[in-house]
Design goal:
By secondary structure, this protein is α/β, with parallel strands linked by helices. It has nine helices and seven strands. The structure holds BIS(adenosine)-5'-pentaphosphate (AP5). The site of BIS(adenosine)-5'-pentaphosphate has 37 residues, from helix 1, helix 2, helix 3, helix 6 and strand 6.
Length: 215
């Protein structure tokens, strides 16, 4: 499967994408994860992206497109992939089209997770994640077995820099102003499959699996 998962910040893209990637044995390509990793390591890309990510803004298109081109050049994407957090602007969607045409890897599905902004704020401010393996948790909806500690590797869970109320408001504003515009682009191609993401993670996963198994 070659697919994109789209939706507002905190709607549950990462939670669903990790499960889909594990089930289908395809790489999960998340620009947010790649950028946070680059920032932690202090690479040139990380230095360029830091201020944008930490303030809840969008990293310039050319930086993110460069990341995606490099990621696809690794050679493990011929059996499928799931893109999470990319494309986020119309120019990014255009660049992706050019890249995928060159690679002969056309998109098969765009899953759009939909949920009211009011629920999203609670999801994001309660989010915790493992800095080592990236596993997502929530203080109320997805608790680890032992409070504050990752189930997979025992690492202390952390809260993201950009998960404060003020920064989430900025990220939601960016989503509605810029990212939502990529949806009609894919709708015209008949690729968009909408999923109600306001239910529990398991229910959302079942709904995502159902829309993906549709011919
Ligand atoms: P990114 O990491 O992509 O952030 P985002 O889109 O804001 O999405 P999140 O990771 O916050 O949320 P999610 O939808 O994955 O939700 P999750 O599954 O974790 O990007 C971060 C930043 O990087 C951007 O702001 C930007 O600066 C930069 N960036 C990245 N890509 C870029 C690009 N292409 N162009 C420019 N800049 C870019 O779930 C959230 C919480 O809710 C978790 O705690 C989870 O446990 C819980 N949860 C999940 N599902 C449910 C459910 N169904 N019910 C209840 N709780 C749930």
């Amino acid at each position: 499967m070659r697919m994109i998962i789209v939706g507002a910040p905190g709607v549950g893209k990462g939670t669903q994408a990790k499960r889909i990637a594990a089930d289908m044995k395809i790489p999960h390509i998340a620009t947010g994860d790649i950028l946070r990793d680059a920032i932690r390591q202090g690479t040139p890309v990380g230095l360029k992206a830091k201020a944008f990510v930490e303030s809840g803004g969008l990293v310039p298109d050319e930086v993110v497109v460069g990341i995606i081109e490099e990621r696809f050049a690794r050679g493990d994407t011929s059996g499928g992939w799931i893109l999470d957090g990319f494309p986020r602007t119309s120019p990014q969607a255009q660049s992706l089209e050019t890249l995928l045409t060159r690679l002969s890897q056309p998109i098969q599905a765009v899953v759009l997770l939909e949920c009211p902004d009011s629920a999203i704020l609670e999801r994001i401010t309660g989010r915790r994640s493992c800095p080592k393996c990236g596993a997502p948790y929530h203080v109320r909806y997805q608790k680890p077995r032992k409070e504050g500690v990752c189930d997979q590797d025992g690492t202390a869970l952390v809260q993201r820099e950009d998960d404060t109320e003020a920064k989430v408001a900025r990220r939601l504003q960016k989503y509605h102003a810029e990212t939502a515009a990529v949806v009609p682009f894919y709708e015209k191609k008949g690729l968009v499959r909408r999923v109600d993401a306001s239910k529990s993670p398991d229910e959302v996963y079942r709904a995502v699996s159902a829309v993906l198994s549709r011919p």
